[in-house]
Amino acid sequence: MKAKFFIAIPLIATLAACGGGSGRGGASLGSEGTLSVLVTDNLAQDYAEVWVTVRSITATDANGQVVTLYEDTAGQTHNLSQLVNIGALVDTRNITTGTYNRFEIVLDNAVTLVDQNGVVTNARFDQSGNPTFSTSITGTLTVDANQAATLALDFDLQQFTYDAGTNTVTPVIVQKDPTSLDQTVSTVFGEVESITDGTRFVLDPAGDGRNLTVVLHNNATVTNTASGEVLSDTRGLSVNMKVSVSGTYDTATLTITAATVQIENGAVGVRHKLEGTIMAINGSSLTIDIHEASFMPGANTLIVDVSNATFSHGRLDQLAVGQKVDIKGAWDGNSFTPAVVEIEGYSRNSGADLRSYNDEYAEINGRITEVNGDRLTVTVREREHASGIKVGDSVTIDSTASWIERGDAGCLMVDAIIEAKGPLPDATTMIANNIEIENGCGRRDDSDDDDDNDGADEPLS
User: Fold this and answer.
1) What is the DSSP track for 340-360?
2) Which residues contact 290 (CB under 8 A, 6 or more apart)?
3) Cα 268 to Cα 225: distance, rounded to the nearest angstrom
4) What letter does residue 393 receive in the DSSP assignment?
5) What is the CA radius of gyration of the chain?
6) Cβ count within 10 A of residue 34
7) CA–CA distance, 48 with 457 (Å, rounded to integer)
8) Helix, strand or coil for residue 5?
9) CA angle, 305 then 310 then 311, to 5°
10) Which among 187, 188, 209, 355 counts the fewest CB atoms within 10 Å?
11) How many Å apart are CA 208 and CA 20, to the nearest integer?
């Protein structure tokens, strides 16, 4: 008997034809468009985590001409359930203008499913024994000179099926309206091509893609993984430095608004990242419930030793069960060696601007009831690590220096549902370092507010 589960993967191909030059290995444009390939997903219902590895994407026009949109022998691994109505950058390419009507996606012939109880199922897309699985769809993508176009290929999870007898997953892919995505996000490895000023530089991606412009957000960090130095501008960068950049990606302008820049020079094997929640702490060893990673983990949790890691946000002695962390480091197929740790919501570490860490870190989920400049009045729906705050209380969120996910400052309006993270100096005001828009920009969420309070610390979803 087949059981349904829900996963979605729009693979976004954004093309902007223009007459400028290309990055390393690129051809000059003219009859070509600039392609940005991204991956996105809707939240799975039956499975908390769904892991797949994308190896290549191609497009074919009416004349049978095939162009490569993305290709990597190692592939890129994504936990699809973490990409909720957003796109994750895979690659940028120059492709010939024209109309494309067939798209082929090659995946590893492996899909890891983790249910709501943490039970892991290692399934396949078919029983061929081949290391990869290929699937294709028909659609329409027109690339015009000096115009921008976006292709969204959506793995429609509501039509996916899992056959427990054969342990195989059958995917269904449809073309998706790209305007339904709230935003695109990215983590990109590459080299510094040039430095424009204190907040802007040009990134040459590690793949064979177009150069990207990187603009530092006003709460961004630039961390040197070798020295541990953390800055808020480009002073620590130099041309040809190897870096990884994480932030919001604009498909039309090929620009990343960076939340973090990691200098990889001198950091051996720093090629991967993971995001997750701390489940247990034993000295400097953390048991992490993995939400997202750039590699395919073999289990739902992973133990990592952070004793030799650099902390870009927070400190070793501030780690606590329930905290969300972003960690970059080396993965050898069996173990993960952390190089840089960020405790989400904590202030950045900098020798020139070391902020107090005495204020309690907290997470607050709530509905905005009033907006006064950068100060938001929020009715609390859920909270963690928020002493003295109850569900139903009104709290002021200071968003002056916030990094905003899934939207921008214009989305911070009355009735928006947000999740804010940061120091909580008292029971009335939070200094938010991170704000996530949970119900889409301008879309009202009329879900159960559950304003009753039982006094317990209620976890955020």
Assistant:
1) EEEETTSPBP-SSS-----SE
2) 49, 79, 274, 275, 276, 297, 300, 301, 302
3) 9
4) -
5) 22
6) 24
7) 22
8) coil
9) 95
10) 355
11) 16
86: phi then psi, degrees, rounded to nearest 5: -130, 160
Owner of token pair 């938010």: 432
Closest CA to 209 of 58, 69, 14, 19: 69
- State both tokens at 27: 């051809």
User: Which residues of 373-425 form beta strands (DSSP E)?
Assistant: 375-384, 394-398, 403-405, 417-424
| Residue 41 DSSP code | B
**Which amino acid is present at 69?**
L
Per-residue pLDDT 10s for the chain (461 aa) are: 222 232 333 444 444 333 333 333 333 334 666 666 565 544 345 667 778 888 888 899 999 999 888 887 777 787 776 665 556 666 667 678 889 999 999 999 998 887 777 778 889 999 999 999 999 989 888 887 766 667 777 766 667 777 889 999 887 777 777 766 666 666 787 889 999 999 999 998 876 667 889 999 887 889 887 777 788 899 999 998 988 888 888 877 888 998 889 887 644 445 677 888 999 999 999 999 888 777 777 777 899 999 988 888 888 888 999 888 988 887 777 788 888 888 887 766 654 333 333 345 678 889 999 999 999 999 998 887 777 788 889 999 998 877 777 667 888 999 999 988 887 777 788 888 778 888 766 443 444 444 444 433 333 33
Which residue has tokens 């907006």?
371
The pTM score is 0.58
Count other Cβ atoms within 10 Å, centred on residue 437. Answer: 22
